[in-house]
Amino acid sequence: MNGPDPAGPPSELDKLRRRVEALSRKRDEAEAQLHALLSSLLPLDDLLADTRRRTGALHEARSAREATAAAVALSEQIDAAHLMLRSEFARHDVRPMEVVGRAADPAEMHVVGTQAHPSAPDGTVLRERVTGFRLGPSTLRPAQVVIAVPGPAPESDPVPAAEDGPGPAASGESSTDGRRAQPRRTTRSQRKLPRKPSAGRKHRSRPS
C-alpha cells in the first residue's frame, strides 16, 4: 500500500507561480509575433519610399515618352506593394473576404447602399465599397457592401439631340475624316443683312 505523497498537493503559491510563468510565456510569444510582423513590413516601407521617388520622376518628365515610362513604372510599384502587403497578411492568416455574389450577412458585412438589378436575387452583394478581412475564422473588419434590390437596371443618361444651329463647320468641330472643317462663306443676301447705303459722290465743277 502506497503511502501519502511526501510532496503533498500544490500550494496556492505554486499555483500562482505557474500562472505567472504561463502568462510570461504568452507575453514573450506575442512580442515575438509582433516583432516578426513589423520586421516583415520593413521591405514594404522601402518599396513605398521608392514609389514616392518614382512619383517625383513622373512630375519631372520633360516629354510624353518619359511621362509614359514613369507612369508604367509607378503602376508596377503600386501593384508590387499591394501584393507584398497581401502576402504578409496571408502569412499571419489575415485574408480578404470574397463576398461579391453572396447573400449579405450582417455578421460580417455592413450594407452601405442598394442598387436595382433585374436578375440578381434580393440582398445579393453586387460590389464592395470597403474590403472586409478575416483573421483566421473570425472577422477582423466587416466589409462595406452594396446589395441588389428588385427593379429594372438604372438607365444611362440619354445623349441630348443636336439642336438646329450651326453645323461643325460653323462651330469649329472636327469632321468625321479627322480634318478640321472650314467655315462656309455666305453672301450678304443669304444672311439677310440690310444693304449699307452708298455714300453720295460729290462732283467737282469744271473750271470754265
TrEMBL record:
InterPro entries from the UniProt entry = GrpE (IPR000740), GrpE_head (IPR009012)
The coiled-coil segments of this chain are 13-40
Q: Which UniProt keywords apply?
A: Chaperone, Coiled coil
Sequence segments annotated as region (Disordered): 149-208
Basic residues biased stretches: 181-208
Highest rank taxon of the organism: Bacteria
| Pfam families from the UniProt entry | GrpE
- Protein name from the UniProt record: Nucleotide exchange factor GrpE
Q: Which organism is it from?
A: Streptomyces pratens
